[in-house]
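FAQ

Q: What does a record look like?
A: Structure on top, sequence underneath. For example:
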């Protein structure tokens, strides 16, 4: 069976300390010095000559590149990683290196949107613009749970070209898509494709789940991280973040994922104002009750079946419990006999994704009324949400 691997598409080269060899993180070099650009010129209008942004304007890839490429930046982050080497008596050592990726300007004030994993651990972040001007950027904020980060540069003496932000809510399978970024250090490369799927769940760098990711076959490779995924009108619909490698390699196989721009627009104000995102935390992992589970004689036909509860979490303190009956369904281990969450604040929960969305929109300290079915009874309890941990462990499994 073919091995599948999800790879964050930032690019990191690491230079070891004096007297050591040069190492490469994630198996990639920078392709230093190259500035090649690949531009496709096929028309991008969809079959009805409308786009996901809905203004009916279909542009060619050349049009989009000419308009948007000047707003795409090349990011170089100086990072330090702690490692242990047998040649240093097992003592922790520091490796200095450069992580590279992409980003794009979103306003005339010098705000740049990128992926959190591009600048994680960075001591210095440099941004290179299309006209070869470069400047040091300040990290305004980052959120690993959505893999988003905001940078700020001094707009004085810079020719800033903000990209127009569209909406990801109307994106449909088959819509044209364009990606612009810096794969393998090749600055401002353009690739084209279509939207292959929507509402895909992907894993954030800290282990939590990002919902509603956009899947595309527009080629995305290491170095594309943080760059824009653009619709046929030239508007940004996503932030390119991950690829499915399909094996042991790290190159593109035509399956890439972008964080939806609507998610970014929701959290940009918090990142600007406080440098982080304050989101509520329940502390459960759940499984959607679908047709595959309805033959198990469950008390309800819809909802989110609790698989695990983190000890000490708001859910645990509220008495929500997972089942203790292990079973295998389609080759996957599941837990039966636990509570089923059916409503949050009176709104029906039909899936794990519904529960994630209901909690993600709340903040620490918010009170929510959660309806559960368990032990043959239905009850509704008020739960005070906690602060989401910095990373998910195997108990939370990346859920709210």
């Amino acid at each position: 069976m073919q091995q599948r691997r999800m790879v964050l598409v930032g690019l990191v080269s690491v230079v070891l300390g004096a007297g050591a060899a040069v190492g490469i993180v994630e198996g990639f070099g920078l392709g230093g010095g190259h500035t090649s650009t690949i531009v496709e010129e096929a028309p991008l209008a969809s079959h009805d000559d409308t786009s996901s942004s809905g203004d009916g304007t279909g542009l060619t890839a050349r049009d989009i590149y000419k308009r948007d490429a000047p707003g795409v930046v090349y990011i170089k982050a100086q990072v330090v990683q702690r490692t242990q080497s047998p040649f240093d008596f097992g003592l922790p050592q520091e490796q200095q290196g450069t992580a590279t990726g992409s980003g794009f300007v979103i306003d005339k004030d010098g705000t740049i949107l990128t992926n959190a994993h591009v600048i994680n651990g960075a001591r210095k972040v440099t941004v290179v613009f299309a006209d070869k001007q470069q400047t040091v950027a300040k990290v305004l904020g980052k959120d690993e749970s959505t893999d988003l980060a905001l940078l700020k540069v001094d707009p004085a003496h810079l020719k800033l070209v903000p990209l127009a932000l569209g909406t990801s809510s109307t994106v449909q399978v088959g819509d044209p898509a364009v990606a612009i970024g810096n794969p393998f250090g090749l600055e401002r490369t353009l690739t084209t494709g279509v939207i292959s799927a929507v509402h895909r769940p992907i894993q954030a760098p800290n282990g939590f789940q990002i919902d509603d990711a956009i899947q595309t076959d527009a080629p995305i490779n290491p170095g594309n991280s943080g760059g824009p995924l653009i619709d046929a009108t030239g508007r940004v619909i996503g932030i390119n973040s991950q690829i499915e490698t399909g094996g042991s390699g790290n190159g593109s196989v035509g399956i890439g994922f972008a964080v939806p721009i609507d998610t970014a627009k929701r959290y940009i104000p918090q990142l600007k104002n406080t440098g982080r995102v304050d989101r509520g935390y329940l502390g459960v992992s759940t499984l959607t009750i679908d047709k595959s589970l309805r033959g198990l004689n469950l008390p309800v036909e819809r909802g989110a079946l609790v698989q695990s509860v983190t000890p000490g979490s708001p859910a645990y303190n509220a008495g929500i419990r997972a089942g203790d009956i292990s079973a295998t369904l389609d080759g996957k281990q599941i837990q039966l006999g636990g509570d089923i969450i059916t409503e949050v604040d009176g709104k029906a929960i039909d899936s794990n994704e519904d529960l994630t969305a209901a909690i993600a929109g709340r903040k620490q300290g918010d009170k929510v009324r959660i309806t559960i079915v368990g032990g043959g009874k239905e009850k509704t309890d008020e739960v005070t949400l906690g602060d989401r941990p910095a990373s998910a462990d195997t108990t939370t499994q990346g859920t709210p």
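Q: Is there anything notable about this one?
A: Confidence is low (pLDDT under 50) at residues 14-42, 46-56, 394-398.
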